[in-house]
UniProtKB/TrEMBL annotation:
Annotated source species: Winogradskyella pacifica
Protein name: DNA topoisomerase
Domain of life of the source: Bacteria
Keyword Cytoplasm: no
Membership in a protein family: Belongs to the type IA topoisomerase family.
Catalytic activity as recorded in UniProt: ATP-independent breakage of single-stranded DNA, followed by passage and rejoining
Length: 746
């Protein structure tokens, strides 16, 4: 009998249906010469300290460091897990061959190997290695089963990672808790979580301690186009003022116009981190939310394996592209232009050298019913996939240089000549021309033309760096804390990132769970406890993102067979030994207690009792006052509609849906707030709704108030007798000494 072991019951069910093992048994499926069983994630775990030595149960400095000679594995202490393990072992005892069907990654390999080893199975083991759960992929995988030995290095890397986390996590957590922990406070320290927390604390302190520095910018407005001083900002006001005075006295002249054609490539396919960053930025999903959604899409056969760190595809996927695109019938309008010709093959997409265990996340072609959040994630994965087979976007970049009194100014603009892949991401909007769009469109300038201009000399201040969001934190973890915008360079640095793509979301969630960090809308801020913990840890290696990145590199080298697991574990033991010696000799200044385990910031005001929300349905008709409002198929209307009253409120107006809340505001306060998205004569406009005299809806475009242009010497708009003076940071009135407090900051 062939025994297959999958990582989840749902995956086992898919595999069993393909293999014809259709009889459901307790803990497995059977049929056609196969038994397909499963784990529930980790059936087996590493020994706890007490399993090695009974006295290691005590959290005592004298027991540290705890460095087992040999690391052992046990079945998790849970009745359901123990029962499933007995079922798995009984199947292994009858097996001719075991087929490891775990998730095709480091964690999946580790989970199944531990079970196989703990069950003391000594027979033949084969490995199923697939990137999607479609029937075709499963069949192809079983036709190409690999010897288990091919994945030994992957197992050694996973085992080393787990031991490294045990050694540092358990020893350091006990060490700092006993030495520096206060009332009811466990101080959790980890190989990846602590450097991640340190990045957040360092950024928080950088912002808190930031002192803005003034600088000055010289600009001028010519033909409604803003030109900036070519050599940038001024750090001394006097330097800029001299030029500002100089240019006022001369006309502006266009010196040169340079147009340069360029190419913009389609966005790369998604790896897991890229998908998490996009979904956090666009949809506000946490990294953990995105991973869970991507995993569900994988299990629903809609996308390929998500826990990946590459944005490339291997060359053997290219012949399958046509078939995948053809099956994406919901996206037929986007796929039709590329299916009608030979599909483009680019080295920016297909590169065998950039693919290891798995390729980038792409759709399988299987379309199924998805929940709203799943559909959002699926939609962007599909569109990225379609876009890479479109033509490149062609642009024309324009640079215009002008001068006034030999002082050069510059402005730039971009014209999109051919949209190419951009059409895939366009919203349905017929108001855009089909082939040419403009970004920062410039007027038509002619070299040598001259004219009046309006120079301005403005004082500004440097800004502090931004707080981390989940998106920017993921990118920082990917590059071990270094700020890297360039995609190619970021790819090169992934080997030294903090954590793995599949574990980063869990690391962030762990920090939230332990109350070391908190959310402030999209921002992630450290709590008082998180800051105190990082301040308490004097050992810089524990907080070093670069050191953690080096460990990640070593683990990847173990996967490749270029470094040994024993060398990695010995290195970790040496570090833990030195850490314990160092921290035990530290003087305790303060202890971190659970009372501080609250978010930093103002205490919340007492919650006001919620008032009952007003409902539109059942309220009095604002027109006749006699009827009450009812909800129909397309509108709200008066209960006397068709008899004595014609009042209605349509669900949408000008292709814009109007919420019940806005209609309640209209009835109670006379208008809605300004809303975006009304279509007026084919154009999208912002405005509000009111009633006319007959209680019909009327649209009022948003009123824009133009600020009057002010200059020195004008009559003071407040006292009407003084003159406007221009100071360093604001305009003021010449009568300020006699009581006029007019002031307008720049």
């Amino acid at each position: 009998m062939k025994v297959c072991i999958a990582e989840k019951p749902s995956v086992a069910r898919e595999i069993a249906s393909v293999l014809g093992a259709t009889t459901k048994r307790d803990g497995y499926y059977e049929g056609n010469g196969y038994a397909v069983t499963y784990t529930f994630g980790h059936l087996c775990t590493l020994f706890e300290p007490v399993d090695y030595k009974p006295y290691w149960k005590s959290w005592d400095l004298n027991n540290l460091p705890m460095l087992p000679e040999k690391f052992e594995v046990k079945v998790a202490n849970n009745d359901g897990i123990k029962k499933q393990f007995r079922i798995v072992k009984s199947l292994f005892d009858k097996a001719d061959v075991v087929i490891n069907c775990g998730d095709a990654g480091q964690e999946g390999e580790l989970i199944q190997r531990w079970v196989i080893n703990k069950a003391n199975y000594k027979g033949k083991v084969q490995r199923l290695w697939i990137s999607s759960l479609t029937t075709e992929a499963i069949k192809e995988g079983f036709n190409n089963l690999k010897p288990s030995e091919n994945y030994d290095n992957l197992y050694y890397a996973g085992f080393s990672r787990s031991i490294g986390d045990w050694l540092l996590g358990i020893n350091a957590t006990r060490l700092y808790t006993v030495k520096h922990g206060g009332y009811k406070q466990v101080l959790s320290v980890g190989r990846v979580q602590t450097p991640t927390l340190a990045m957040l604390v360092n950024r928080f302190k950088e912002i808190e301690n930031f002192v803005p520095q003034p600088y000055w910018e010289l600009q001028t407005l010519y033909r409604d186009t803003l030109f900036s001083y070519e050599e940038g900002r001024f750090l001394k006001m006097e330097d800029g003022e001299i030029l500002a005075t100089k240019v006022k006295e001369h006309e502006f002249e266009i010196v040169s116009i340079t147009k340069k054609k360029g190419t913009e490539y389609a966005p790369k396919l998604f790896d897991l981190t890229g998908l998490q960053v996009y979904c956090n930025t666009k949809f506000g999903f946490s990294a953990d939310d995105t991973l869970k959604i991507a995993q569900k899409l994988y299990e629903k056969k809609a996308v390929t394996y998500p826990r990946v760190d590459t944005t490339f595809l291997p060359n053997d996927v290219y012949p399958k592209v046509n078939g995948i695109l053809s099956k994406l019938t919901d996206y037929a309008t986007l796929t039709a232009p590329i299916l009608n010709k030979k599909i483009k093959k680019s080295s920016r997409v297909f590169n065998d050298k950039k693919v290891t265990d798995h390729h980038a996340i792409i759709p399988t072609g299987m379309q199924t019913h998805l929940q709203y959040n799943e559909q959002q994630v699926y939609d962007i994965i599909v569109k990225r996939f379609i876009a890479v087979f479109y033509d490149d976007c062609k642009v024309s970049n324009t640079t215009v240089i002008g001068k006034a009194a030999d002082v050069n100014f510059k402005t730039t603009g971009k014209e999109i000549l051919s949209k190419g892949w951009r059409v895939v991401f366009e919203k349905k909007d017929t108001s855009t021309a089909p082939n040419v769009t403009k970004d920062n469109l410039l007027p038509s300038f002619v070299k040598g033309e001259k004219g009046p201009h309006e120079p301005s000399f403005l004082e500004k201040q440097t800004k502090a760096p931004n707080y981390y969001t989940e998106a920017t934190l993921l990118r920082a973890m990917e590059t071990a804390g270094k700020q890297v915008e360039d995609e190619e360079l970021r790819d090169l640095m992934k080997e030294n990132g903090i954590g793995r793509p599949s574990t980063r979301a869990n690391i962030i969630e762990t920090l939230f769970r332990r109350k070391y960090i908190k959310r402030n809308k999209k921002q992630i801020l450290p709590t008082i406890t998180g800051i105190q913990l990082i301040d308490t840890i004097q050992n810089e290696l524990l907080k070093s993102a670069e050191l953690t990145g080096t460990w990640e590199k070593q683990l990847k080298d173990i996967e490749k067979g270029e470094y040994t697991a024993s060398a990695f574990i010995k290195g970790m033991k040496r570090m833990v030994d030195a850490l314990v010696y160092e921290v035990r000799s530290e003087k305790v200044q303060t202890r971190i207690s659970a009372v501080n385990n609250k978010p930093a910031g103002k205490p919340k005001a007492k919650a006001k009792p919620k008032s009952k929300t007003q409902s539109l349905v059942g309220s009095s008709c604002p027109k006749c006052k006699a009827g009450s409002l009812l909800k129909g198929k397309t509108a709200y209307g008066c209960s006397f509609y068709g008899k004595s009253c014609d009042f209605t409120l349509p669900f949408s107006l000008g292709e814009k849906k109007i919420s019940e809340k806005q209609y309640i505001r209209l009835i109670t306060k006379g208008s809605t707030v300004n809303l975006k998205g009304f279509k007026v004569k084919g154009n999208s406009q912002e405005g509000l709704l009111r009633f006319n005299d007959n209680f019909k809806l009327k649209f009022e475009p948003k009123q824009t108030i133009k600020k009057p242009i002010m200059k020195a010497g004008d009559v003071c708009p407040k006292c009407k007798t003084g003159k406007v003076l221009q100071g360093k940071t604001a305009f003021g009135c010449s009568n300020y000494k006699s009581g006029c407090d007019f002031r307008v900051n720049f």
